[in-house]
């Protein structure tokens, strides 16, 4: 399987990505962007220092300077690219993947993500092609690597967007860092809000993830957080993934609050900043999200799954922000980018403003019944989607991402995974009985749900 993915470059170390390949990728990125200055950051994985050094060597061989911002969370790369004069940047991380993985998230200036459709294929052609393709032009001097600390400017920006140090009222929360890169800035960020008491979990940087996998979408990875929230009498719990661009939420009762519900909770805060603006959400989200956007005077913007699509649509439509079911939350004022820490802080501020806690605010938004994401291992994906279209031909069908079928009282989306060999199903209905009936029909068509998959 190729390491060149739809949204980034990712694979196991050292069999799929080693120092030699990292060096070629660095050179290919610099050559593709015709870059003179690139920002580079990395996470805490054990191989990240060596892989980052090799990547930077490849970049500098092309005569390009490297602004090295050190060990950071992925959102800090977006801050750095957005505030430092540069041609783009790259974060060395494998996000939520297990400890043996490493990878690269790449951006143009702006920052604007580089995806499979907007550059990764070109970078692959350069990196995997003839060595002569990456030979530096004659007379080009090797670039330099300069360390730069951006933590203070990043924290200042975050606090300002949340509304200042007094925006969050007194309360106790629990934060599960999963030994990941959220530890690089999270504790200092929370400390900027003096009324907030934070109980940390797994708060030692460790790229081997000794406590649990750094993927908060897997419910079992939230078990320790649930227990601690209840034991501490905390108002809520936050869980970051490995590079902290995503955030998951648990209420005071230990119940997971889906990212679409969190998006709906954030809608008033977003639209107060830009009344009448568009708010983006992925097509798997509950109908309560567009309904809440309309009720607050905004414009619902439905988009396919994937951060590059979300960000492109946000920019094109002038949206103020939004959320994705995967736990990515987007903010136009934060460089048109996603940030798990900012999402957590903004939810705390909005709940404080409304006088509600997360449990009660979420319960108000749970007016529909959802299946959650169900994976199916299907050999003939196109044939399966065609059968769904034929079976539900009397519904409203679109193909923004896979197939979406909508009826007045229920809907279903089935889409091929961009990262794994699955069809992924999400459905919602106005009653649990209707959800169960329609779920059975779909399972009879697609086969038994597969185990695994994120």
Topology at a glance:
Blueprint: E1 9-12, H1 19-33, E2 37-42, H2 48-61, E3 65-71, H3 74-83, E4 88-92, E5 101-108, E6 112-113, H4 116-128, E7 145-147, H5 151-162, E8 171-176, H6 186-191, E9 196-201, H7 223-232, E10 236-240, E11 247-251, E12 256-257, H8 259-273, E13 278-282, H9 288-295, E14 299-303, H10 307-317, E15 321-323, E16 329-331, E17 337-338, H11 340-354, H12 358-365, E18 369-370, E19 374-376, H13 381-391, E20 396-398, E21 403-406, E22 410-416, E23 423-429, H14 432-446
Parallel strand pairs: 2-3, 2-4, 3-7, 8-9, 8-10, 13-14, 13-15
Antiparallel strand pairs: 1-5, 4-5, 5-6, 10-11, 11-12, 15-16, 16-17, 18-23, 19-23, 20-21, 21-22, 22-23
Helix pairs in contact: 1-2, 1-4, 8-9, 8-11
Question: Could you explain how this protein is built, in words?
Answer:
The chain is of the alpha/beta class and 454 residues long. It has four domains: 9-149, Alpha-D-Glucose-1,6-Bisphosphate, Chain A, domain 3 (3-Layer(aba) Sandwich); 153-252, Alpha-D-Glucose-1,6-Bisphosphate, subunit A, domain 3 (Alpha-D-Glucose-1,6-Bisphosphate, Chain A, domain 3), CATH 3.40.120.10; 259-365, Alpha-D-Glucose-1,6-Bisphosphate, Chain A, domain 3; 369-446, TATA-Binding Protein. Helix content is 36%, strand content 23%. The protein is built from 14 helices and 23 strands. The protein has helices spanning 19-33, 48-61, 74-83, 116-128, 151-162, 186-191, 223-232, 259-273, 288-295, 307-317, 340-354, 358-365, 381-391, 432-446; strands spanning 9-12, 37-42, 65-71, 88-92, 101-108, 112-113, 145-147, 171-176, 196-201, 236-240, 247-251, 256-257, 278-282, 299-303, 321-323, 329-331, 337-338, 369-370, 374-376, 396-398, 403-406, 410-416, 423-429. Strands 1, 2, 3, 4, 5, 6 and 7 form a seven-stranded mixed sheet that branches. Strands 18, 19, 20, 21, 22 and 23 form a six-stranded antiparallel sheet that branches. Strands 9-8-10-11-12 form a five-stranded mixed sheet. Helix 6 (186-191) links the parallel strand 8 and strand 9. The radius of gyration is 22 Å and the shape is globular. The two termini are 17 Å apart.
């Amino acid at each position: 399987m190729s390491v060149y993915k739809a949204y980034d470059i990712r694979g196991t170390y050292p069999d799929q990505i080693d120092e030699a390949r990292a060096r070629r990728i660095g050179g290919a990125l610099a050559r593709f962007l015709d870059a003179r200055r690139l920002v580079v950051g990395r996470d805490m994985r054990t191989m990240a220092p060596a892989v980052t050094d090799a990547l930077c060597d490849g970049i500098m061989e092309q005569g390009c300077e490297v602004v090295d911002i050190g060990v950071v969370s992925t959102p800090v790369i977006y801050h750095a690219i957005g505030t430092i004069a540069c041609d783009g940047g790259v974060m060395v991380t494998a996000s939520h993947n297990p400890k043996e993985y490493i990878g690269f998230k790449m951006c143009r200036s702006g920052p604007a993500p580089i995806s499979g459709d907007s550059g990764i294929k070109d970078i692959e052609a350069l990196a995997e092609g003839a060595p002569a393709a990456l030979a530096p032009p004659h007379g080009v001097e090797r670039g330099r690597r300069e360390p730069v600390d951006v933590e203070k400017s990043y924290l200042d920006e975050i606090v300002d967007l949340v509304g200042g140090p007094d925006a969050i009222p007194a309360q106790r929360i629990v934060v599960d860092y999963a030994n990941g890169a959220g530890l690089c800035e999270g504790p200092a960020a929370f400390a900027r809000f003096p009324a907030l008491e934070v109980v940390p979990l797994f708060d030692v940087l460790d790229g081997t993830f000794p406590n649990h996998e750094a993927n908060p979408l897997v419910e079992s990875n939230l078990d320790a957080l649930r227990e601690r929230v209840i034991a501490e009498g905390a108002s809520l719990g936050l869980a970051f993934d490995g590079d902290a661009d995503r955030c998951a939420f648990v209420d005071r009762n230990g119940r997971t609050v889906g990212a679409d519900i969190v998006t709906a909770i954030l809608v008033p805060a977003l639209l107060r900043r830009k009344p009448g603006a568009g708010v983006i959400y992925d097509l798997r989200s509950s109908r309560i999200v567009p309904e809440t956007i309309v009720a607050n005077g905004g414009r619902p913007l439905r988009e396919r799954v994937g951060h590059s699509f979300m960000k492109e649509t946000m920019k094109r439509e002038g949206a103020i922000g939004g959320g994705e079911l995967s736990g990515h939350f987007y903010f136009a004022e934060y460089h048109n980018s996603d940030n798990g820490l900012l999402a957590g802080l903004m939810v705390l501020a909005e709940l404080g403003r409304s006088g509600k806690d997360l449990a009660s605010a979420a319960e108000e938004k749970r007016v529909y019944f959802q299946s959650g994401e169900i994976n199916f291992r299907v050999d003939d994906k196109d044939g399966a989607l065609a059968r769904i279209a034929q079976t539900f031909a009397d519904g409203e069908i679109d193909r923004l991402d896979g197939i979406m079928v909508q009826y007045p009282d229920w809907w279903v989306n089935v889409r091929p995974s961009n990262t794994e060999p699955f069809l992924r199903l999400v459905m919602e209905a106005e009653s649990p009985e209707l959800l169960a009936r329609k779920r059975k029909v779909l399972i009879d068509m697609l086969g038994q749900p597969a185990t695994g998959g994120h």
